[in-house]
Design a protein that fits this description.
alpha/beta; 9-stranded mixed sheet; homodimer; 368 residues; 6-stranded parallel sheet; 10 helices; 30% helix
């Protein structure tokens, strides 16, 4: 066991790269010692933040003091940089999406296996409190069995004006935000996905999707809507989930929200019809007085540790990774199915890798 | 031209039947004179409302003073009652869904053609003010070209505890509320529907759907989500629509809502990243100060006349129907496609009757 801190070097010192420095700052067992970026201005920013600046990626690899590389570059070069680093004995934390397609990540996993280095993907939104509140509800049946989930992020800024607009760099919203929302779902729901349909948005005229809607059906009966939008001047709620006993909503990252549950203490009274537009409706009338109870959202699910604490323990052989590579691979496979469903306007079935280990299921659509 | 009022008899004096009496009360050229229902208590209610009560449906047909029948019975007998009435020289207003399948309505249309009687379906929600505000936005490009529409009605009362739970009577939410929401869309958007997928909900264990989500793609590029839910203790907005210049929302039938538009007067400034959960996001940060303008919703589109004023003019030969039978037929065909998509978990294409007159398109899925 290594009693000194493991030395971490950040590769790619943009917005996310420098954020990793802050995340690692207080983690026992890890210390950011250096950085490298292809842009001079970012090299200077790293130096200003007190890090040793390397003159090349090779120089990082050749530095025997470096134990860990954080790969925070554009998506298309994650694989090559990670593989080269693992082959020189470095552990890897890689930004998401780890690769643009499943096959590339399988290559990375093979090298991790071969070299014995740790490879963990930064699916940090498994630690988002909004998601962890939903996971609490799901695990504890707070509003009865959850049977329908809608997970949305809406912005009005289009795609950021950098490599995220370029297909070859792995741009687009399905790979950028979709990978988070799908990862959360797959982490929470222990069931095979039986079908996926989707709609990709190209309204901004970029070569990559500026948003998407995906509709998932799980074998256990749960359905889900996953949506990312960058042309939404008004946002729909971050979460909207339905259980057998109630409905819950989380408006946004401020965690404003509520649960409304059926009040089983009162006898069920059919509500009176209301005027709705030019017609009457009994079906859509609000439940009668006292028929529901409104409650605050439950406490969030607690992970055993944070992403970087877990990573630190994993490289010290003290813990299993919370973000498992098999899960990351499954999400990439799901993303390929969503792209396929959107491009072909078809429902995609029999693709999910959930049972792959048991049944050796082969995807039914082309992979890159 | 008939200068006296046309005599109207209401068949089926439940919640909707008696509501028709109120709707017709102030219409020039129409007068409700009688009613008939199979239930004694409803016969008594009709008598209490001042109407002549007939002892049988045949007695209504045999009364030569009766010009118009309003058919407000369960859905499965609309066809037979309407056809018998048209054959005895009565005009028909029929509740929605007019029939449970397209083929049945084609029979009704054939009899209307053959007898020369007027047959109009009560798709009254074309006059709902919330819808007419959206139609204004659509026609006038108030938030730029509308390219995405979400139309939802949410309740928490399940399906009303009457024939609406029974498949043979034409129960279920797709036929009940779906027919309205789809009719509005088809009336507004002059384009062929190129594909439909859907999810039918049976969470309440009824033999009919207790809700559904349908995803429509139009040839002109517009996409739409149509959703009806009866297990929603919190409601999502009645309307959520996206245009090239902004987004609009209508919360509910109180017409509370707003439009948020891009402010083209200010230079576009990329917003600063915000903390969102455990991560940063620039993409999903609120637009920077002054980058958007919030406005009140526009005035509603004005129809030339109300449903019953139009009907009165149609039977007097003074106007064309606002609710055209070809449109009603197209919506029934669309409903069959949505059922098919939901049952088979497939995307349904090449079904829409939009171009049927030009190209003689045949539906590609079985019809009842």
């Amino acid at each position: 066991m290594n009693t000194t801190k493991n030395s971490v070097v950040i590769i790619g010192y943009g917005g996310m790269g420098s954020y990793h420095g802050k995340l690692i700052k207080d983690i026992e067992g890890l210390e950011v010692t250096g950085a490298y970026d292809v842009l001079q201005e970012r090299q200077e920013a790293a130096a200003a933040d007190g890090y040793q600046v390397y003159e090349s990626f090779e120089a990082v690899l050749n530095d025997p003091k470096v134990d860990v590389l954080v790969i925070a570059t554009p998506n298309d070069i994650h694989k090559d940089l990670s593989i080269r680093a693992m082959r020189t004995g470095k552990h890897i934390v890689c930004e998401k999406p780890v690769t643009l397609c499943k096959a590339d990540f399988e290559e990375m996993m093979a090298v991790a296996e071969e070299t014995g280095q740790v490879l963990m993907v930064h699916q940090n939104r498994r630690w988002d409190e909004d998601f962890l509140m939903i996971k609490s509800m799901y695990d504890q049946h707070t509003i009865g069995d959850l049977f329908h989930l809608e997970s949305r992020v809406h912005g009005a800024n289009g795609i950021p004006g950098d490599w995220r607009r370029i297909e070859a760099y792995g741009g687009g919203m399905l790979l950028d935000w979709g990978v988070h929302l799908l990862d959360q779902l797959v982490f929470m729901i222990d069931s095979k996905i039986t079908s996926v349909s989707s709609r990709l948005s190209f309204i901004l005229g970029d070569e990559v999707d500026d948003g998407f809607e995906a509709y998932l059906q799980f074998e256990n009966g749960i359905s889900a809507v996953i949506e990312v939008g960058t042309t939404n001047f008004i946002t729909l709620p971050r979460w909207y989930v339905k259980g057998l006993e109630g409905t819950a909503i989380i408006e946004d990252w401020s965690l404003k929200g509520r649960m409304v549950l059926r009040n089983n203490e009162v006898e069920r009274i059919e509500p009176k019809p209301i005027q709705a537009g030019v017609g009457l409706t009994k079906t859509m009338a609000p439940p009668s007085e006292g028929a529901t109870i409104t409650e605050a959202l439950p406490a969030a699910y607690q992970h055993a540790s944070s992403f970087y604490t877990n990573f630190s323990e994993v490289i010290s052989g003290k813990a299993e990774p919370i973000v498992k590579n098999a899960e990351v691979l499954r999400v990439l496979n799901l993303i390929e199915a969503i792209f396929e469903a959107g491009r072909t306007h078809q429902v995609i079935k029999d693709f999910d890798m959930y049972e792959a280990e048991r049944d050796n299921v082969t995807p039914s659509f082309p992979v890159c």
